[in-house]
Amino acid sequence: VEHILEPSTYQFPEPDTEVLMFRQEKHDWPKEMRETPGIRAAGRPEVTLRPTRDPDVREATICRSRDQGLTRTESAAAIHLPEWLRDCPLYLCRKIVGLADSSLLMTLYGLPPSGPATDHKSYAIRSTDRGETWRFLAAVGGGTPIGLRSEGFDEPTLLVLSDGRIQCFLRSGASYQASLGSHDGGDKNATM
Q: How far apart, in Å, are the Cα atoms of 107 and each of 73, 150, 181?
């Protein structure tokens, strides 16, 4: 279905109502999924970041709609990352959330450039220009939980509570879920 809303979908508050979403590209999928007839990229929770000419900037296709996704305009959103994430394969994951200051947050995860191939780490990124550009905000979760066979912390998703607190839910392996919270409205200078 061409007008499906992606898992990252965010609708700006009234009276605006513009819908914003990142689009997964089928060519980013594993080979066996790309070659399966009838499989569509829409609905997958991860979006692969593409490299740009600037080694500290990646991009992803962002869609905007004023009719709940029936028609869309697409552009490349720039994701600015710190140098130490330069060589990491990274994936945007799950949903975009809005904060009281009108900025947007989203999570991403990936493997560090060194270390075990099963040690995913999760991060938060922030946009102050309605999703055109995103900047690294903070590391959210990483490492392997003690005593568990896992893949590190991945597939993060955010929830903003009515009192401004931010909750992040992460997965580590098939059976271990974790949640982290912020009591400072996402202030990157505060500690948890």
A: 23, 20, 14
CA-CA-CA-CA torsion sign (108, 96, 82, 76): positive
Cα distance between residue 121 and residue 154, in whole Å: 6
> Which 3 state secondary structure label does DSSP give 45?
coil
For the chain, 192 residues long, the average pLDDT of each consecutive 10-residue run is: 68 86 65 51 68 93 87 93 88 89 91 68 93 93 59 80 86 64 54 37
Q: Token pair of 32, please?
A: 């066996």
DSSP character string of 77-118: EEEE--GGGTTS-EEEEEEEEE-TTS-EEEEEEE--SSS-TT
CA gap 134, 132 in Å, rounded? 7
Beta strands per DSSP E along the chain: 10-11, 19-22, 46-48, 50-51, 57-65, 73-80, 90-98, 104-110, 121-127, 133-141, 154-160, 166-172, 176-182
Burial-class residue 44 by CB neighbours within 10 Å (0-12, 13-18, 19+): buried
Beta bridge partners, 62, equal 22, 75
